[in-house]
TrEMBL record:
This is DNA/pantothenate metabolism flavoprotein C-terminal domain-containing protein. InterPro entries: CoaB-like_sf, DNA/pantothenate-metab_flavo_C. Residues 7-203 form the DNA/pantothenate metabolism flavoprotein C-terminal domain. The lineage of its organism: Bacteria, Pseudomonadati, Elusimicrobiota, Endomicrobiia, Endomicrobiales. Signal peptide: none annotated.
């Protein structure tokens, strides 16, 4: 490669606040994103690392901490053109409250109705706006794992997608499927560091193919 590759890696969950103390989120630990960053650094690449609330952060990267999906979208958009390869391992909330209350909502006997709106599609934005870049995403599914992941790959115009189940949340090991247009590679019950090596190497391989004008396969 003629230049040092730059990775933009999104990691961790987002928090979408309902009031000053309550929020919508998920169990993402940030371990997968951290593993990806560590491998990219070992491959002598630069890393821009955007993370939601997490206790796991890599060193020797440009670290950008965010809380909400909107904040993650803005930072991704700001840094998007600087990267050759974008990987979103973040578990971004699909929805956020229409209104966030400044103070804690007091309990009442009638219950509470929360109106939600769709968050912006971060990885979809990257896929549809890439220029000589590789964009990879993750698909956490609880049913029809490969089929739903392939739909996401196509609809969001990604180069690669990694499919996994909810058991990967917070764990050090997982079973994942690395999927491109033609191939499904199963990585069964391996440490996330090993999975990260496969993902990073595959994205670099695809990038080199595009750079040399070869067909992606």
């Amino acid at each position: 490669m003629s230049k040092k590759l730059i990775f933009l890696i999104l990691s961790g969950p987002t928090k979408e606040y309902i009031d000053s103390v309550r929020f919508i989120s998920n169990e993402s630990s940030g371990k997968m994103g951290n593993a990806l960053a560590q491998v990219a650094l070992k491959r002598e690449c630069g890393v821009i690392f955007i993370s939601g609330p997490s206790s796991v952060f890599p060193t020797d990267v440009k670290l950008i901490k965010v809380t909400t999906a909107l904040e993650m979208f803005k930072e991704t958009k700001s840094n998007f053109k600087k990267a050759d390869i974008i990987i979103s391992a973040a578990a971004v909330a699909d929805y956020c409250p229409v209104k966030t209350y400044k103070h804690k909502i007091k309990k009442n006997s009638e219950g509470m109705l929360i109106k939600l709106k769709r968050n912006l599609d971060i990885i979809g934005y990257c896929g549809k706006n890439k220029k000589n870049q590789i964009v990879a995403g993750f698909a956490l599914e609880t049913e029809n794992l490969i089929g739903n992941a392939r739909l996401k790959l196509e609809n969001k115009k990604l180069d690669l997608i990694i499919a996994n189940g909810r058991e990967s949340f917070g764990s050090d090991s997982a079973t994942m499927y690395i999927i491109n247009a033609d191939v499904v590679l199963e990585i069964k019950n391996k440490n996330k560091k090993i999975i990260a090596e496969k993902i990073i190497d595959e994205t670099i391989r695809i990038f080199k193919n595009i750079e040399s004008g070869e067909k992606i396969s």
